[in-house]
Amino acid sequence: MAWPRSEITRWVFCSLTGITDMAVEPSEPLEIALIGFGAVGVILSLILESKGLARVSAVARSNYAAIREKGIRIESQLNGTHEAYKPSAVYATPEEAAKSGKKFDYVLVTTKALPDVKNTAEITRPFWEGKSAEELPVFVLIQNGIGVEKDLAAAAPQAPIISSTIYIATNMLNGEVRHSLVQRLVLGPLCTSPSTAAAAQRLVDVLVAGGADAKVTDDITLARWSKNIWNATVATLSTSLRLSPTTYLVGAHAQHTIPLLRALSLEYWNVARALGVNLSKEDATNNVDFMVSTSEKRARGEIKEHLPSMLLDRLEGRALELEVILGEVVREAKRLGVETPRLDTIYAELSVIHARILEGKDDGKSV
């Protein structure tokens, strides 16, 4: 039986980069460096530290002073209310954390994946540059999109990398983190080896002990493409329209927007299928059905509104995760000869918006 194209690509990459089994020294608690202390990073830190099984050293760049002095308020339906949460240590930069003298078991990256602004290899450089394979921590990329591992894997070919998907409804508003009922993670080694798989399971065990729904998969490519379908369709359409999904999927507009969302999802599925990713057609249609059902519940006030993070970024004039969420899909479609006219259109529109944001000409409100 022929291997899927995505698995052949992964096998060739792992062979060329020379990833081998890396020993993970057992120790308790785990020493974890966490780069990116936004809403997702804060909730993960809270979960990891909740049972005393890990010590988190957070790199909180923009909110470093506030976190160090006062901590951060968390209001979570799953993890309770914390008036002034602080992780075990707080640093202003990755360099400062890497020079702290701690031997980190893991480096978790929860920053937005922005390869066209500053890629993951550059962000994590202090933790891998000049280190032997035995000295390297395990890098865990908890970021949206497709192909987010490429930069780090190319720059640090001996680094053990765990990729992941995260389903979490959390936002940071006015310096406070609000989190509802979703905190599900799927982790999988980029290159399969017994030790990297064991490292993934070990981290999952700590997450589960802290109350998260987490597991290890042997097909992280499928997990990523399954997760990304929502971002590549619903989130990008919301960002293009500058509207919440509830606004355009419920009411008079629904007769136009629901068929559009179905068409976008099927284009995405066609790309995944051509790439050899085992994404079912039902996954594409379920994406739409779930979003419509959820939007109807939000319109009735049964559950709280949740805005896509890309939409929030546009409204605040921040860089968009466009390249990893949609750009990578569109480029794969072109390479494989798959027609994606609707995805192409949204990508083209958001590319202009993203460029204007980077130039300081789009604050999310002006024309």
Topology of helices and strands:
Blueprint: H1 5-17, E1 30-35, H2 39-49, E2 54-59, H3 64-70, E3 72-76, E4 80-85, E5 89-91, H4 94-98, E6 106-109, H5 120-128, E7 138-141, H6 150-155, E8 161-173, E9 176-189, H7 194-209, E10 213-216, H8 220-241, H9 245-249, H10 254-275, H11 281-299, H12 309-315, H13 322-336, H14 341-358
Parallel strand pairs: 1-2, 1-6, 2-5, 3-9, 6-7, 7-8, 9-10
Antiparallel strand pairs: 3-4, 8-9
Helix pairs in contact: 8-10, 8-11, 8-12, 8-13, 8-14, 10-11, 10-13, 13-14
Which sheet architecture does the biggest sheet show? Answer: 10 strands, mixed
Count of discrete alpha- or pi-helical segments spanning 4 or more residues: 14
Structural class: alpha/beta
Residue stretches low in confidence (pLDDT < 50, at least 5 long) are 15-26
- The end-to-end span amounts to 54 Å
Average pLDDT figure: 89
Quaternary structure classification: single chain
Task: Please compute the radius of gyration using only Cα atoms.
Answer: 20 Å
Query: From N to C, what is the helix and strand string?
Result: HEHEHEEEHEHEHEEHEHHHHHHH
**In what range is the share of β-strand residues?**
15-25%
Gross morphology is globular
Number of strands: 10
Share of helical residues = 40-55%
Characteristic terms for this protein:
367 residues, alpha/beta, 10-stranded mixed β-sheet, 14 helices, 10 strands
